[in-house]
TrEMBL record:
Belongs to the ComB family. Its cofactor is Mg(2+). This is Probable 2-phosphosulfolactate phosphatase. It comes from Leptolyngbya boryana NIES-2135. Pfam families: 2-ph_phosp (PF04029). The gene is comB.
Length: 242
């Protein structure tokens, strides 16, 4: 059963919890791992990121920081998935802190299985869910500073719709709450024009003002990357071995 829960720190964890930040943290994390990063370490706090990344020599680490869509001074990278090239990522650990996405991952980190999903790796997420069939799944959209985001919601809908098709069951059998019904409806309406939806999204507009159209195009493409970021230990994501 799929929920998009209102999370409180005391809530029990789901069997599987999925964080979505299509623009752009989970798209960036998936790309970094697909490009050969050994692991991605997520932080909400920049000072902690700087401190903990000191444990690795500079040639083994990269620091990525984003606030308000822009790169944080002193970091190697901002939060563009397009910067995550194999040349930069291979054999390195990426330490990343973003405005909302890394916080969403931290909120669900107590679940036994934690995944990072985006439109680009939707199929890899669905493959995992179809194979493992966890009883309860939380899908948590990062949103923007606590508010709803179109791009994360449409991705949640894309995941659940595809799971239903692959398992041959009705959506009613899978849907746990009203938010999920809305997510599926949004996906059904926009599935052939996901980039068009990004233009309506408030964070899409923010990124366009920051000259990031190529990021929007990349993040709006569906099933282009066969990689599943999975939490190995609290705060650390690695590529799930298929
Ligand atoms: C976030 O965490 O809020 C986003 O990933 C922001 C961004 O686009 O860099």
């Amino acid at each position: 059963v799929f929920h998009t829960p209102e999370l409180t720190p005391t809530q029990n964890a789901a069997d599987c919890a999925i964080a979505i930040d299509v623009l752009r943290a989970t798209s960036t994390i998936a790309t970094a791992l697909s490009s050969g990063a050994d692991a991605v370490h997520v932080f909400s706090d920049m000072d902690k990121l700087m401190h903990q990344s000191e444990a690795l020599p500079p040639e083994k680490r990269l620091r990525a920081g984003e606030r308000g869509g822009s790169k944080v001074e002193g970091c190697d990278l901002g939060n563009s998935p397009l910067d995550c090239t194999p040349e930069l990522m291979t054999g390195r650990h990426l330490f990343i802190s973003t405005t909302n996405g890394t916080r969403a991952l931290q909120k669900i980190q107590a679940s036994p299985t934690v995944l990072a999903a985006a439109l680009i790796n939707r199929k890899a997420v669905v493959d995992y869910l179809v194979e493992h069939q966890p009883e309860t799944v939380w899908i948590v959209g990062a949103g923007w500073e606590g508010s709803f985001a179109l791009e994360d919601t449409v991705c949640a809908g894309a995941i659940v719709q595809s799971v239903a098709e692959r398992l041959g069951c009705s959506l009613e059998e899978l849907i746990g709450n009203d938010e999920m019904v809305g997510a599926i409806s949004l996906y059904q309406q926009w599935k052939s024009n996901l980039l068009g939806l990004m233009y309506h999204a408030s964070h899409g507009k923010r990124l366009l003002r920051l000259d990031c159209l190529e990021d929007l195009k990349y993040c709006a493409s569906l099933d282009t990357l066969n990689v599943l970021p999975i939490q190995r230990e609290i705060g650390t994501l690695v590529k799930h071995a298929v």
